[in-house]
Fold this sequence. Notes:
Oligomer: single chain
Number of helices: 7
Mean pLDDT: 83
Structural class: mainly alpha
Helix content: over 70%
Amino acid sequence: MPIILDLFLNFVKIGFFTFGGGYAMISLIEDVCVSKKKWITHEEMMNVTVIAESTPGPIAINCATFVGYKQAGIIGAIIATFGIVVPSFIVIFLVSIFLENFLEIAIVAKAFAGIRIAVGILILNAAYKMIKKMKKQPLAVGILICACVAMLLINIFSFNVSSIMLMLSAGVFSLVLFTIKNTVNNKGGKPL
């Protein structure tokens, strides 16, 4: 099968059968692109996820664009992106045409309640796989633990913290650590 068609069909499948948005799709994208098709490595998947989260646009679309570009250049990026977007567009378009009060239908509301649980499990699965395969450097583990504790405290005590300020703070903190690490490594010291 030509790579363009293969990219399109696989990303259409991911788009049709993954509910819950980009985070829920990460697990399926990793399964298809890393495990089955071997289009990218696990390291690349982790890097793409971080970069896709940091750039504008939905994370799944950014991941699809990267994988498509890596496999078939600009055309691959366009086809993979189109493949992951088309299913959502079709479903939303059909729902908007035929069912004005779609979520008020009892069976649909119950189905979405069940889907919400499945989405949470998919997101936890993706996080677990990434943490499991992450290099266990003390600094990285420390940052992970601090970030989790900070987010829990913010949610438990309902602090009014801007997500933009959190992202900027994390960026500045990472830049400072990167600079310190490079300085220590260049002077022949022990790496962090």
